[in-house]
Amino acid sequence: MSREAVLSNQEGMTSFRYGDYNIRFRTPSILKQYTEIKEWDNGYLVVMADYEGIGVTEEYIDLLPILNNLYLNPKTFLKDIHSVKIGNYEC
């Protein structure tokens, strides 16, 4: 299995895919796309995001509370993910 997860967005939803999981969560409808992954730190992402009317800005995504709400053990789920890349905007 790849050790790389994929972050993408479409129509107000962000998708974080890894293995057989596709974790989706709401994002502002003005988010056009993620443009860069600046940092991956075991469940915490620093990304550049392009927003309609705002432009490119730095954003922070914390997956830990999302995983906990889905009853997924963050330590187990995240242990093999070594990097995250931007995907083809398909949730």
A few lines on this structure:
The protein has 2 helices and 7 strands, in the order ββββββααβ.
Topology of helices and strands:
Layout: E1 4-10, E2 13-18, E3 21-26, E4 31-41, E5 44-51, E6 55-62, H1 63-69, H2 74-78, E7 83-86
Instruction: Tell me the number of strands.
Output: 7
Q: Quote the distance from N terminus to C terminus.
A: 20 Å
Q: What integer value in Å does the Rg equal?
A: 13 Å
Order of helices and strands: EEEEEEHHE
Question: How do the strands of the widest beta sheet line up side by side?
Answer: 3-2-1-7
Largest sheet: 4 strands, mixed
Instruction: Indicate the overall shape.
Output: globular
- Give the averaged pLDDT, no decimals: 94
In helices, the fraction of residues equals 10-25%
- Helices and strands: which structural class? mainly beta
Number of helices: 2
Strand content: over 45%
- Unreliable segments of 5+ consecutive residues: none
Description:
With 91 residues, this protein is mainly β. It has two helices and seven strands. The chain has helices at residues 63-69, 74-78, and strands at residues 4-10, 13-18, 21-26, 31-41, 44-51, 55-62, 83-86. A four-stranded mixed sheet has the order 3-2-1-7, with no helix packed on it. Strand 1 and strand 2 (13-18) form a beta hairpin. The radius of gyration is 13 Å and the shape is globular. It starts with a strand and ends in a 5-residue tail after the last strand. The model has no long low-confidence stretch (mean pLDDT 94).
